[in-house]
TrEMBL record, chains A, B:
GO terms for molecular function: glutamate-5-semialdehyde dehydrogenase activity; NADP binding. It holds the Pfam family Aldedh. The keyword Amino-acid biosynthesis applies. Keywords: Amino-acid biosynthesis, Cytoplasm, NADP, Oxidoreductase, Proline biosynthesis. This is Gamma-glutamyl phosphate reductase. The keyword Lipoprotein does not apply. It is found in: Cytoplasm.
Length: 421, 421
């Protein structure tokens, strides 16, 4: 048996131990994990220094290095995040529906854990703790396959989690860190259909494509966010301006940031100059079509690629549209099914926008930046699914469980002729 | 562009037409499809006769031929099934949760269609109409890839469905029948990740393995049912006997039939002779372990393979266990996550059985034969999922939709410094 298979099997065999934990036991475990991380801060920072040194030697750049870097404050944040997951409501055992059928059987839908979740991720070492915590709160065992650039940090964080598991008498295998980071080993992991119930890739487009291409186990993708703001003819211009500035500039590097602004022709003459002034102050580059450039001379020419781009930067693609339907058609063509926003006072237009688009999150008069597990009411998120299956949009602990059927009867049978007694 | 790609693209492009239909329009469409099937009965039977002739020439056997065969009654049944789907509640647009967040945004979870569903199936021509109807009721477009042995029947049924689509002004592509039945074409279909949202294989183990192996789109498997009845020490023997006879003999060829009986040692001496007598009368062959054979001399020796088998026939594997935990361990080892039953008067034992097993359906004192979309309250089913993702157990129209987030605000932003006006 290959090493990765036996590692994964041990994780699967350990999974019932966490599936059977009650809510208080899980909360206590997560709090102890947080304490363990706190106590081991120095060790974790030493390990992280090794990763940082190797990364600089490899020539990694600013943002990449920043994602990798830990300091005392960041370790404390990771521990705090575990304490917050410990406060979430426990989805396991939740009875979502109950019905007495004509036969007399009582049918309940009850949430159970998925089983074994494989997280495939890149530089950020906090994912090691965050993903483990959410998986455990939902009663799952987890296989963590992080990036090679963070291996020392991930190992130190996993050791802290294992210490807490041990003190709770739980098998360490319920949080399994993969240390063999060869691509072929990842491919093998992604094909263990009898062991892994779900793979969640988090990272750049390259990683997600690789996972989708090679996985035989189910995958929920967390893909790019090409988020749109459509400013309708009936929009309140100042409200729309707030949504634009918040969506584009409050944190341009995240997936729920705005990338494209669509403006109704009737609103463009008033709105676009206002927008250009506000964005210029915040150093946002605008790339527009001809109609935009006629109103905003400083905007450069937008290409087709700009409309499909997730800039993750202070760049905004802009287009003037003739109608709501043209805005919808644009989003259908260029969108990534993540988050779209309409600014309008016209309820019929809002309804049409919502119903015509099948993105995971659609907002009416609210910032795209609310498309986030915490903001939307999930407490914490393991990512934002753009796969239209199982979970769509921000995924919390509940999305790491599945509804099954529990039926209670008092001897009901389907065919009376089966009755013996 | 390949033929199958352009066929699938046409289906995807037509999908919004059905996604936007309101409930009454869908119901009327399905009723007209039923009428169209009725009017075309003679044509459908002629087409079916071609399939039957080819099948006999190929030497197809009894049960296979029976699955393929249509007659006036069966066509009427197919039409009736469409009328029943038309009565289901419409999952599309259903608001499942609503919450006002501290920020003031109102977050709703609203069901939308998946988009494009590909059904991959074998001999039964009724699946062509059944699957199309459930997919349409859930607002999806559907690509139907049936077996070559039923191609004439499937074509005639699809023509009837298309007639109704046309009379409703809907594009025929929302129900797309694949007529190129080469394996490589199916593989290509299963890899159209930008077009197909979900593939559902229904058929034998070979088909399901093939689909799982080659698909890059998400797959929900409808795998075998190795269903267990565990007769606890605290079982009512006559109640347990009813469950056994109903589960094993009322329709042995279906996936929710019982395949294995586990009996607690303390109940075996009373229960097994009763069971043997009742089963003998119904010509069921018993294959047991030594303890079983000591009590039931006519039982043959069970092999390890017998405990893993889905007999789909009048054969029952039997084992005497020392405890509830041994029964649970047996089911974990040999089960297929489909349906398990416990007969007991001991509530604590029932609870432990339910919580320790992660099968899609767990029954307490009720027949495994209730593990069926109609019986369990879904109205109709597109299959019974043994994939622990998205849907688990009987899948109805609701399982062909997904919850997404719709957010209403009045200008909320995340960062106050974004406020411009």
């Amino acid at each position: 048996m290959s090493d990765i298979r036996s590692l994964a099997l041990a994780c699967r065999d350990a999974a019932p131990a966490v599936a059977m934990l009650d809510t208080e036991a899980k909360r206590s475990l997560l709090r102890d994990m947080a304490s363990s991380l706190g106590r081991r801060t120095a060790t974790i920072l030493e390990a992280n220094a090794l990763d940082m040194r190797a990364a600089s030697e490899k020539g990694l750049q600013g943002a990449m290095l920043d994602r990798l870097k830990l300091d005392e404050g960041r370790v404390a944040d990771i521990a705090q995040a575990l304490r917050e997951v410990a406060e979430l409501s426990d989805p396991v055992g939740m009875v979502t529906r109950r019905e007495v059928r004509p036969s007399g059987i009582v049918v309940e839908r009850v949430r159970i854990p998925l089983g074994v979740v494989a997280m495939i991720y890149e530089a950020r070492p906090n994912v090691t703790a965050d993903a483990a915590a959410l998986c455990l709160m939902a009663g799952n065992a987890v296989i963590l396959r992080g990036g090679s650039e963070a291996i020392h940090s991930n190992r130190a964080i996993a050791a802290a989690l294992h210490e807490a598991l041990e003190s709770h008498g739980l098998p360490q295998a319920v949080v399994t860190l993969v240390e063999d980071l060869r691509r072929e080993t990842m491919v093998e992991l992604l094909q263990l259909t009898d062991i892994v119930d779900l793979a969640i890739p988090r990272g750049g487009e390259g990683l997600i494509r690789f996972v989708t291409e090679h996985a035989r186990v189910p995958v929920i993708k967390h893909y790019k966010g090409v988020c749109h703001l459509y400013v309708d003819r009936a929009a309140d211009p100042l409200l729309a301006l707030d949504l634009l500035v918040d969506g584009k500039t409050s944190r341009p590097g995240v997936c729920n940031a705005l990338e494209t602004l669509l403006v109704h022709r009737d609103a463009a003459a008033e709105f676009l100059p206002l927008a250009a002034a506000a964005l210029k102050k915040r150093r946002v580059e605008m790339r527009g079509d001809d109609a935009t450039r006629a109103l905003v001379p400083c905007a450069s020419q937008a290409s087709d690629d700009d409309y499909a781009a997730e800039f993750l930067d202070l760049i905004l693609a802009v287009r003037v549209v003739d109608s709501l339907d043209e805005a919808i058609a644009h989003i259908r063509r260029y969108g990534s099914d993540h988050t779209e926003v309409i600014a309008t006072r016209d309820e019929a237009a809002a309804r049409r926008f919502v119903q015509s688009l099948r993105s995971a999150v659609v907002m009416v008069n609210a910032s795209s930046r609310f498309s986030d597990g915490g903001q939307i009411g999930l407490g914490a998120e393991i990512g934002i699914s753009t796969t239209r299956l199982h979970a769509y949009g921000p995924m919390g602990a509940e999305s790491l469980t599945i509804e099954r059927f529990v039926v209670h009867g008092d001897g009901q049978i389907r065919h009376p002729e089966s009755h013996v007694g």
